[in-house]
Design brief:
about 475 residues, alpha/beta, Rossmann fold, 3 domains, nine-stranded mixed beta sheet, seven-stranded antiparallel beta sheet, 16 helices, 16 strands, about 20% strand
């Protein structure tokens, strides 16, 4: 009688044998095995060839799709095949799909998966989400598995897997794909925000925004001030080759500071319109934490602008608060980390320049031009009223009187005042006239409208100018920026 103890692993061993048999089984209706289709193209057993892989951030995935499509199209015989196999195809890499034992038969040729991805504020592209491009590169057959990131299935990055008998050809192909993905990037010359509401054309956290187009006469500035601001951004870019040749740095910073509603964002919008060749990354609020990513993107897509709206929210003077401010350090590191020859401008706006970190505002190379954007004076308020008013609606006398009555108000206030006057006329069923502007002015200046005035930035004739030592800046006398 056998009294030896039973092997506790025996049941598991038998299950493993059964599992291997199941994995090797090929259903009759599976179609052409992927390995067979690749062998026909590559001219040899694919499982004996090396696979060279590259991971790609998903917001760059469409750039790689464009680059790979351009390269593959050089071969008139190029094609794309899809991959079957159900859910398992998302969890295994190309070498596992083509192994004679485990992969053979489990992954047949199927339809190609496509995904619509944004390429601009009102455009999109059907990119390969999962499929294999087959073509010849440098006269050598190659196959490239393209797979978009699928965070829900455990893949946080997009991947390219190049299968070829000659590994040097695979490396050369990936190198050209990288270069072409930068030169033909959909981000080059685009305006993007690192935020999404769910309603815009977006691509993995990047929202494409239509570039603003403002005329110079729509930005009410004293003579010469707007030109100086634009020259600091676009002028340096125009002379970049000569400055580089003479060893001068290109990286620069512009700070627009002043009270809320005075027109800092409006000035930025004009800058975006007159720099059509610049890639622009907009950061505001909680997205300021992505300043490191924004700097890298700007460096790759230069000339570029990185706009940090209301940066005082994260760049307060460290002496005024307790504890470390990692986000502040990220901003400083991003501005310092770029090479001096990077044609990148950091444009910062703030309502509280006195609270700004000194290291951010006083060190050349971080911010080298500060422009105050104060409340408009009487001439500025009159210009703003003329700008926002319907043509011929109000007389010059009433516009001038309104400008006098609204001392200490912002550009936003002037715009709202005109809107209310037009609304009064609409309610009366007539064209807007002097009476409606007078009524709207009296209404908004009434005691009961104190909160509305505060929300529109009306707070007296106080200035927002603080001392910002050691920076060239535009001050009263040189001209005031007020819209």
């Amino acid at each position: 009688m056998d009294t030896s103890p039973a092997d506790p692993d025996a049941p598991l061993d038998r299950l493993k044998v059964l599992l291997d048999l199941l994995l090797q089984h090929q259903p009759a209706s599976a179609g052409t095995p992927l390995a067979t289709a690749l062998a026909e193209h590559l001219g040899g057993p694919p499982h004996e060839m090396a696979v060279l892989s590259e991971e790609v951030q998903n917001h760059r995935f469409v750039d790689y799709d464009i680059a790979l499509d351009a390269i593959a199209s050089r071969d008139p015989a190029n094609d794309v095949i899809g991959i079957g196999g159900g859910e398992s195809r998302y969890h295994v890499n190309l070498p596992d799909m083509i192994q004679p034992g485990g992969g053979y038969g489990r992954f047949p040729v199927a339809q190609v998966d496509y995904a619509n991805v944004a390429t601009g504020p009102d455009s999109e592209r059907a990119a390969i989400a999962m499929g294999i491009r087959r073509f010849a590169y440098a006269c050598v057959p190659v196959a490239v598995l393209v797979r978009r990131a699928l965070p829900g299935r455990g893949r946080g990055l997009a991947t390219l897997e190049v299968l070829c008998a000659d590994r040097t050809v695979s490396a050369a192909l990936l190198e050209e794909v990288r270069e072409l993905s930068l030169t033909r990037s959909v981000l080059r010359g685009a305006v993007v925000s690192l935020a999404s509401s769910g309603y815009e054309m977006t691509e993995e956290g990047l929202t494409f925004i239509a570039r603003p187009q403002l005329r110079a006469d729509q930005v009410v500035l004293p003579e010469g001030v707007l030109e100086r601001v634009v020259d600091h951004v676009a002028g340096i870019a125009a002379h970049a080759p000569e400055l580089k040749r003479l060893g001068q740095h290109l990286k620069r910073g512009l700070l627009l500071y002043g009270p809320p509603g005075s027109g800092k964002t409006h000035t930025v919008r004009y800058l975006l319109g007159v720099t059509p060749d610049h890639t622009v990354v907009l950061l505001a609020g909680e997205t300021l934490r992505f300043v490191g990513l924004a700097a890298k993107l700007a460096r790759a897509m230069q000339p570029a602008l990185v706009v940090l709206e209301d940066c005082d929210l994260i760049a307060e003077d460290r002496d005024m608060s307790y504890g470390a401010k990692p986000l502040l350090f990220e901003v400083l590191d991003a501005m310092d980390g770029l090479d001096a020859d990077a044609d990148v401008t950091f444009v910062l706006t703030t309502n509280r320049v006195d609270a700004m970190e000194r290291a951010l505002t006083q060190r050349p190379g971080r911010v080298d031009l500060a422009v105050e954007v104060p409340l408009p004076d009487a001439a500025g308020r009159l210009a703003l009223l003329r700008l926002y008013a319907p043509e011929g609606a109000f007389s010059e006398d009433v516009l001038a009187d309104t400008a006098h009555r609204t001392s200490g108000t912002t550009a936003s206030f002037s715009r709202e005042l005109i809107r209310r006057a037009v609304l009064h006329a609409a309610k009366d069923g007539v064209a807007p006239g002097d009476r409606h502007l007078h009524e709207a002015t009296s209404e908004i200046l009434a005691d009961g409208e104190r909160l509305s005035r505060a929300l529109l930035g009306a707070g007296g004739e106080e200035k927002s100018g603080m001392s910002v030592d050691r920076m060239p800046r535009v001050r009263p006398g040189d001209g005031e920026v007020y819209c």
